[in-house]
Amino acid sequence: MTHPLEELREVALAEIAVAPDEETIEAARVRYLGRTGSISAWGERMKSLPKEEKPIVGKLLNEVRGAVTLAIEERGAKLRAAQEASALADLDISLPGTPNEIGALHPLTQMLDRAIAIFRRMGFALAEGPDVEDEWHCFDALNTPPDHPARAEQDTFYLPDGHLLRTHTSTVQIRTMESAPPPIRVIAPGAAFRRDEVDATHSAQFHQIEGLYVDERVSVADLKGTLEFFFHELFGPGTEVRFRPHYFPFTEPSFEIDVKSKALKSGEKWIEVCGCGMVHPAVFEEVNRARRDAAYDPEKWTGYAFGLGMDRLAMILFDISDIRLFAQNDLRFLKQFAA
Ligand code: PHE
Questions:
Q1: What's the gap between Cα 165 and its chain centre?
Q2: Domain 107-337 - what CATH class?
Q3: 37, 12 in Cβ contact below 8 A?
Q4: What helix, strand, coil percent values describe the chain, rounded to 5?
Q5: CB 282, CB 308: distance < 8 Å
Q6: What contacts 182, CB < 8 A, 6 or more positions away?
Q7: 107 Cβ inside 6 Å of ligand 1
Q8: Which residues contact 335 (CB under 8 A, 6 or more apart)?
Q9: Where are any strands of DSSP class E within the chain?
Q10: CB distance 60 to 6 below 8 Å
Q11: What is the pLDDT of residues 24-51, one digit of tens each?
Q12: First CA to last CA across the chain, in angstroms?
């Protein structure tokens, strides 16, 4: 005689074996094994069985529950595998893929990389400072008095709390000297900000490479040699470099540098690309005050500093006519510089 549980198993296994999809299997699972399912109901029924039948039916119940559970798992796995296989069968691996758009370096970044590589060969280390500065690092420490025009509200972006967007990277001269004693030989590339009238050659944000070299017996000849070498490396040996006397509060003497090269599209025109000079003793004194020592004794140390206009250099190098193109993110422009 077969026990009703055994019949239940037959029916369940037969049904599961031909279940066409996962929903049907799930329905069977609920019907047999769910909380109110027919197999589960036998657990309840056990309680009212005579004592001697309990172990036999209990064992059978476990077997049936195990067999049905396993059958459900196996049928489910089989259906999923079949589904996957048919999905793959529809896949045409001969179809061309979606090409990745590969980007390229921005012309300003390319310019920067070239310039940095030249200075690194000459032993300059990289330094940096924040875009948002205090007035002391941007002006006072650089011997620039409160009534200097560069500090005027119409020329500089002030924040409500008195901080400002640095108007030049010369702030990093100060930060570098605050943090380390001489000798110093660093370049500091970065953004600078001025409230300029924006046109083809002026932007409210532009980029500079600051340079600072402090050591014993550094002279104008070192400054001139270093920057002439730099421009020849950058623009080619035929490049002419002109030093014009100029004024900056934080250097003495001060110069502006113009370059001209037949190899460049700008041809016979002199183009101003750099401000520079010998670090003013007042700057060393102010740094000493901040450091609370005499590390930068102006009797012992001398130095030169320079600030190169990166946008201007990139415009010359790549023959770009409008500085605003750098920030407009127009792919038609940028793609022309993709290496
Ligand atoms: N900071 C100056 C400017 O932005 C350039 C400069 C740097 C001049 C270092 C002298 C020394 O115009």
A1: 21
A2: alpha beta
A3: no
A4: 45, 20, 35
A5: no
A6: 214, 215, 295, 296, 301, 303
A7: no
A8: 104
A9: 125-126, 132-133, 164-165, 184-193, 205-215, 240-248, 251-260, 271-279, 302-309
A10: yes
A11: 999 999 999 998 888 888 888 888 888 8
A12: 86
The dihedral through the CA atoms of 92, 93, 96, 101 has a sign that is: positive
Q: Is 173 close to ligand 1, i.e. is its CB under 6 Å away?
A: no
Task: Quote the CA–CA distance of 93 and 277 in Å, as a whole number.
Answer: 65
Per-residue pLDDT of 301-329, as tens digits, reads: 999 999 999 999 999 889 899 999 999 99
64 lines ligand 1 (CB under 6 A): no
Hey, CA dihedral for 196, 279, 311, 178, is it positive or negative? negative
Tell me, in angstroms, the distance from the centre of ligand 1 to residue 266's CA: 24
Expressed in angstroms and rounded, the spacing between residue 309 Cα and the centre of ligand 1 is 9
| Cβ within 8 Å of residue 156, ≥6 positions away | 150, 164, 165, 167, 193, 194, 195
Mutate to test the pocket of ligand 1, among 143, 155, 170 (most ligand atoms within 8 A of CB): 170
The whole-number pLDDT of residue 229 equals: 97
Residue 109 Cα to ligand 1 middle (Å): 21
Counting from 1 in the atom list of ligand 1, the atom nearest the Cα of 208 is 4
What number does the ligand 1 atom closest to the CA of 167 have?
4
Q: Is the CB of 307 under 6 A from ligand 1?
A: yes
Please answer whether residues 164 and 138 qualify as being in contact, where contact means their C-beta atoms are separated by less than 8 angstroms.
yes
Distances (CA, A) of 32 to 76, 102, 236: 16, 57, 86
* Residue 333 amino acid letter: F
* Distance from C-alpha of 271 to C-alpha of 128, rounded to nearest angstrom: 27
Ligand 1, atom 9: nearest CA belongs to which residue?
306
Amino acid found at 233: E
Q: What's the pTM value of the predicted model, to 2 decimals? A: 0.73
161-206, pLDDT tens digit by residue?
A: 999 999 999 999 999 999 999 999 999 999 999 998 899 989 999 9
Q: How far apart are the C-alpha atoms of 172 and 282, rounded to whole Å?
A: 16
What is the spatial distance between Cα 190 and Cα 113, in angstroms, rounded to a whole number?
12
User: 10 Å Cβ neighbour count for 320?
Assistant: 20
